[in-house]
Amino acid sequence: MKMMLKVLALPVLFVVKSICILGNLLTNISSYVIGLLLLVIAGCAIYCIVQAMWTSLAILVGMGLAAILAIFLLVWAVVKFETLGNHIKEFICY
């Protein structure tokens, strides 16, 4: 019975590892894009401070926090899938 579960866990492991690889690739690529976006937001925030446009500054701060939160959640999801993949791999190997 346990051997059947191990055989059924192989496709699941393949899917999880594929998601991990795609997630790592997406994280690396989006880090560059979000980094550039945060630089633009910081420049616009400095302009808003100098011009005393506080509403626009609040919107920019919200956009910056949303960008940081998006990359954080993406990395968190990749780590969770890697942990799941390691648990499935341990189940198959032992």
Question: What would you note in describing this structure?
Answer:
By secondary structure, the chain is an all-alpha fold. It has one domain. The protein has 2 helices and no strands. It has helices spanning 2-51, 54-93. The mean pLDDT is 95.
Q: How would you briefly describe this protein structure?
A:
This protein is mainly α. It has 2 helices and no strands.
Give the biggest sheet.
none
Q: What's the Cα radius of gyration?
A: 21 Å
Helix content: over 70%
Give the overall silhouette: rod-shaped
| Poorly predicted sequence stretches spanning 5 or more consecutive residues | none
SSE series: HH
Secondary structure tally: strands = 0
Task: Provide keyphrases for this structure.
94 residues, single chain, 2 helices, 96% helix, mainly alpha
Strand-helix topology:
Blueprint: H1 2-51, H2 54-93
Helix pairs in contact: 1-2
